[in-house]
Amino acid sequence: MRTLKVFITGGSGYIGRSTIAALIRRGIEVTALARSEPSARTVSDLGATPLAGALTDTDVLREAADRADGVIHLGVDYSEGTADVDRAAAEAMLDGAGSRPYVHTGGVWVYGDTDGVVDEDAPLSPPGITAWRLDNEKQVLARTTAGAHPVVVMPGLVYGYSGGLAQSFFVEPGRAAGAVPCLGDGSARWALVHVDDIAELYVLALSAPAGAVYAGVSGQNLPLADIALALSHAAGCPGRIDSLSLDEALQQMGPIAEAFALDQQFTGARARRELGWTPTRLDALAELSRG
C-alpha cells in the first residue's frame, strides 16, 4: 500500500505542530514549508521533511502541492498585504493540487456575534481584523466549479499546552500586571477547541467532500468571566481580574480586542456527523487554569 503524502504550511506554528503529529501518527508522509532554519528544525524534529520557502514563493507552493496527495494550509504571513499573500498562496496550491484535497484555514470570528448556538450556515459579520478572510474563502470554495477539491476548516479559540491567543493576550499580560484582563462584564462567550482536537479535524478534512466547511469547535462555549478566572490561576494571580471596556482593551491589545469581545456559541455537529470527528479534550477551564 502506497504511503500518503501531505504538504502543509504553517507546520512549525502552534496548530501546525499538533497537526503534523496527528498526520505522522497515521503513517502519513509530511512535507512542511519552512521559512527559516529554526522552523525547519521544528518540523524535522516532529518527523516531517522541511521544504525551504515562504508563502510568497508561489512556484514552490504549486510544485509541492503537485507532489502531494493532499494539502493543509495553516500558514499566515502577517506582514503588509496578508490578504493578498494568502490568496495568491491558496491559488498556487489549488493549482498544484488539482482534484486532490486542499484544506484551507478560516476562523469562526468571521461570524461576529451569534444569536445563541449556531452552525456554519449562520450569517457572517466579521470584525475588521478578520474581514479579509471572507473574500479569500469565497474564492477558494469557488474553485470546486473548476474541478478543485477545497475544504475550509474554521477553528474556534484554540487552547492547550500553554499556547494560543489566550496565553499571549491574557496570561502573559496578567502575569506582568498582577491581574488578568477581562472584556466588559465577562458575559460574552468564547467557542473553544483544544489544539490536539483541531489538529485531528484538519486530518479528517482531507477526506471531506469538495466545498465542505467545518466549524472547528468542541462545544465548549464558555463565558469570558469563567475563562478569565481560570487564566488568572495560570498567570499566578488567582482571582485577580481587570475589567476593561472595549476602548480600553483596544488600547492595550490592538484591533484583536474587537474579536475577543465577540459573543459566540457554535456547534461542531457537522464535523462530527460527516467526518466522525470526536473531540476528547473537554475540560477547557481546568487546562487553562494550569497554564
Task: Explain what you see.
- The chain is α/β, with parallel strands linked by helices.
- It has 2 domains: 5-158 and 193-217 and 267-275, Rossmann fold (3-Layer(aba) Sandwich), CATH 3.40.50.720; 159-191 and 221-265 and 281-290, UDP-galactose 4-epimerase, domain 1.
- Helices cover 41% and strands 21% of the residues.
- The chain is built from 12 helices and 14 strands.
- The chain has helices at 14-25, 37-45, 58-67, 82-97, 132-142, 165-177, 195-205, 224-234, 246-253, 256-260, 269-275, 284-290, and strands at residues 5-9, 29-34, 49-52, 70-73, 101-105, 117-118, 149-155, 157-159, 180-183, 189-194, 213-216, 220-223, 241-244, 265-266.
- The strands form 4 sheets. It has a 7-stranded parallel beta sheet with strand order 3-2-1-4-5-7-11, with helices on both faces. A 3-stranded mixed beta sheet has the order 8-10-12.
- The protein starts with a strand and ends with a helix.
- The model has no long low-confidence stretch (mean pLDDT 97).
